[in-house]
Design a protein that fits this description.
Elements lengths: L3 H6 L1 H10 L6 H34 L5 H33 L20 E6 L12 H8 L4 H8 L8 H20 L3 E4 L3 E2 L1 H7 L10 E3 L4 E3 L3 H7 L5 E3 L5 E10 L18 E11 L3 H21 L4 E5 L2 H4 L5 E9 L4 E10 L3 H6 L2 E3 L5 E3 L1 E10 L1 H9 L7 E2 L5 H4 L3 E2 L4
Parallel strand pairs: 2-7, 6-12
Antiparallel strand pairs: 1-9, 3-5, 4-5, 7-8, 8-14, 9-10, 10-11, 11-14, 12-13, 15-16
Helix pairs in contact: 3-4, 8-9
Bound molecules: 5'-O-(N-(L-seryl)-sulfamoyl)adenosine.
The site of 5'-O-(N-(L-seryl)-sulfamoyl)adenosine has 18 residues, from strand 8, strand 11 and strand 14.
Length: 423
């Protein structure tokens, strides 16, 4: 959410961002509400001041003067009992609209309504030319008995998966490999739950606009987060950190749950788009300084590119458009990795900077060097998400005999140079 003061002083810039991000927010309605709240606050504060003055006067009044003053006090109290609920109701409506205000996108973001405007800025590596007819990842899994997708559907429903043998061990090896890469860059390794609370999802930004993506438990008593980012973003909510302890660099492994509402028919086969998956997440909370945010953004992006390069996978870098990046983003860059069986790149990583949009929602603050309490800036990025990355690893590194080579950097974690069929 944006700072009300900023909105009052820059309505046209906010209006432009609303339009560029395809938001349905009615800014005039928000500004009108803001003026009404300010006016009601002025009235209630004036009445409260008068009630205090009146009570002091009554305490010192003579017996003759006192009844009139007590009457006046009652009349003021009655007026306040009328105005205060109105003020609370208007403040609630204003807060709901503030949740829908968009961060102004950076000037380099392609302006457009959807992902067709995302801009490929560079590629790394080249798609492999196979000297044999390559298999897709589902065929490789079936050929080597590396999983059981049918029985997963039987026991867990659609968009589920079971990994077996070398592929199960490979997933675990990859997740630890990714965590170690982040530790080497100064990130603190964490494991975090997926079970979370409604206010934490509001603080993150998933609520109110994308509730349909989130599974609820026990009728909304708890929710299953789609990414560790949700919980990491709530960790320091309500606290006042010291600037000296920033930036917080967190690397979190967690299960992630997504309803994939709206994705009917897309990627229904295999490991690309499932309801429950694992992800090593990069999350940063830093001081409210654009240069610091940009520096950390580049650090996180290069960590993820380094992981894809270590996995010897061809990928491309996309500057995400204003319409595709979502309300809270200042900047978003996606990494897409080559999928031989589809003959195209598919998203595997998403790096975002949100300035103080999440910090205002989740009340993330710190005391700066001058002693001022300020909202922090937040950023997040994918380090590695399985099983989607297994699609690319199996297909790109397959041999004609159906075995799959393990990239050099991961061999110490997996223990072998190849994935092989169960004996
Ligand atoms: N339904 C899904 N099934 C498998 N993998 C998924 C699914 N949804 C997302 N992912 C993986 O998780 C990555 C990050 O998801 S994201 O929504 O784009 N971004 C985030 O969650 C951010 N917190 C950065 O990680 C995606 O790039 C993709 O690799």
């Amino acid at each position: 959410m944006l700072d009300l003061k900023f909105i009052r002083e820059n309505p046209e810039a906010v209006r432009k961002a609303i339009e560029q991000k395809g938001s349905s927010l009615n800014l005039d309605e928000l500004l009108t509400l803001d003026r009404q709240v300010l006016e009601l606050k002025r009235q209630t504060e004036a009445l409260q001041a008068e009630r205090n003055a009146n009570a002091k006067a009554a305490a010192k009044a003579t017996p003759e003067e006192r009844p009139a003053l007590i009457e006046r006090g009652k009349a003021i109290g009655h007026q306040l009992s009328e105005l205060e609920p109105q003020l609370r109701e208007l403040e609630g409506k204003l807060k709901q609209l503030l949740y829908l205000t968009p961060t102004l996108p950076w000037e380099g973001a392609p302006v457009g309504p959807d992902d067709s405007f995302n801009l490929e800025t560079r590629t790394h590596g080249r798609p492999r030319t196979f000297l044999f007819e390559p298999l897709d990842h589902v065929a490789l899994i079936e050929k080597n008995d590396w999983g059981d997708l049918e029985r997963a559907a039987k026991v867990s429903g659609s968009r589920s998966y079971i990994l077996k043998g070398d592929l199960m061990l490979y997933e675990q090896a990859l997740l630890r490999f990714a965590v170690d890469r982040l530790i080497a860059a100064g990130f603190t390794p964490m494991s975090v739950p997926a079970l979370t609370k409604e206010e934490v999802l509001y603080g993150h930004g998933q609520f109110p606009t994308a509730r349909d993506q989130v599974y609820s438990v026990n009728g909304g008593e708890a929710f299953l987060a789609g990414t560790a980012e949700v919980l990491l973003n709530g960790l320091y909510s309500g606290e006042i950190l010291n600037q000296a302890e920033l930036p917080k660099l967190l690397a979190a492994l967690s299960p992630c749950f997504r309803s994939e509402a709206g994705s009917a028919g897309k990627d229904v086969r295999g490991l690309m788009r499932v309801h429950q998956f694992n992800k090593v997440e990069q999350y940063v909370l830093c001081r409210a300084d654009l240069e610091e945010s940009n520096r950390l953004f580049e650090t996180m992006l290069s960590l993820s590119e380094g992981i894809l390069q270590a996995l010897e996978l061809p990928y491309r870098v996309l500057e995400v458009s204003t319409g595709d990046m979502g309300l809270g983003k200042y900047r978003q860059v996606d990494l897409e990795t080559w999928v031989p069986s589809e003959g195209r790149y598919r998203e595997t990583h998403s790096c975002s900077a949100l300035l103080d949009w999440q910090a205002r929602r989740a009340n993330l603050r710190y005391r700066d060097a001058e002693g001022r309490v300020r909202y922090a800036y937040t950023l997040n990025n994918t380090a590695l998400a399985t099983p989607r990355i297994l699609v690319m690893l199996l297909e790109n590194h397959q041999n004609e005999d159906g075995t799959v080579n393990v990239p050099e950097a991961v061999r110490p974690y997996f223990g072998k140079a190849k994935l092989e069929a169960a004996r």
